[in-house]
Amino acid sequence: MEGGDSLKNSLSWLHGVINGKIGHGLEVIALQGLRVIHAEKGFMRFDFVVPNAVSDVDGYWSVAALASLLDVIGVVTTYSFSNRISPTIDFNVSYYSTIMVQVKSFLFNRGVHVEIESKVNANRGKLMHVVIEVRRKGNGELIAEGKLWMAASTKFTLAQVSKL
Predict the structure, then answer these.
(1) Residues in Cβ contact with 100 at an 8 Å cutoff, skipping those fewer than 6 apart
(2) Is the dihedral of CA 44, 47, 53, 54 positive or negative?
(3) Which of 80, 63, 81, 84 is nearest to 134 (CA)?
(4) Do residues 114 and 50 touch, judged by C-beta distance below 8 A?
(5) 76 Cβ contact list (under 8 Å, min separation 6)
(6) Tally of CB atoms within 10 A around 133
(7) Residues 51, 32: contact at Cβ < 8 Å?
(8) What global pTM score does this model have?
(9) Domains assigned to the chain
(10) How far apart are CA 137 and CA 112, in angstroms?
């Protein structure tokens, strides 16, 4: 892992959100089981088994939980790049496929495994653009793509960044 203090700070903040010390209850549920595979300044790769708690009434991954996950990952990625918390000012998610939260097999039930990749695509001083892709592990099928514009600000605290 490369990137210095900004990377350490961003990963520390992410672990605070996952453990419920920062943020809201929805974020804790939506990020349950998220693992960092690779992290460097402005780029991160995650491994995630979608938990049962984020399913909708039909058993699919809730779009609200997925959007919350994308927003938090966008904040963490920009934090690793700029060493500051940046609120989302424009948020666009394209959903390409759905995911049943539980895969039922003859022998066992297991959650669906996805890979998430996030990178800062543009840095315009006080504005940064982040692209996040969620893909099914194994076949690489694109599930969703989030595009976020983040604004540099010192007026926000860690707990105020996501309003989803």
Answers:
(1) 59, 60, 61, 112
(2) positive
(3) 63
(4) yes
(5) 10, 11, 13, 14, 44, 118
(6) 18
(7) yes
(8) 0.84
(9) 5-157 (3.10.129.10)
(10) 8
Distance CA(87)–CA(164), nearest Å, equals: 12
Q: Decide if pLDDT at 21 tops 90.
A: no
Q: Residue 126: CA atoms inside 13 Å, Cβ hemisphere, count?
A: 5
Tens digit of each residue's pLDDT (9 = 90 or more) over 140-161: 999 999 999 998 765 555 555 5
Token duo for residue 51? 């938990």
User: Could you give the CA distance from residue 21 to residue 11 in angstroms, rounded to a whole number?
Assistant: 14
- Least Cα distance to 118 among 141, 96, 97, 145 occurs for 145
**What digits encode the pLDDT tens for the residues 68-90?**
999 999 999 999 998 888 888 99
SS3 letters across the chain: CCCCHHHHHHHHHHHHHHCCCCCCHHHHHHCCCCEEEEEECCEEEEEEECCHHHECCCCEECHHHHHHHHHHHHHHHHHHHHCCCCCEEEEEEEECCCCECEEECCCCEEECEEEEEEEEEEECCCEEEEEEEEEECCCCCEEEEEEEEEECCCCCCHHHCCCC
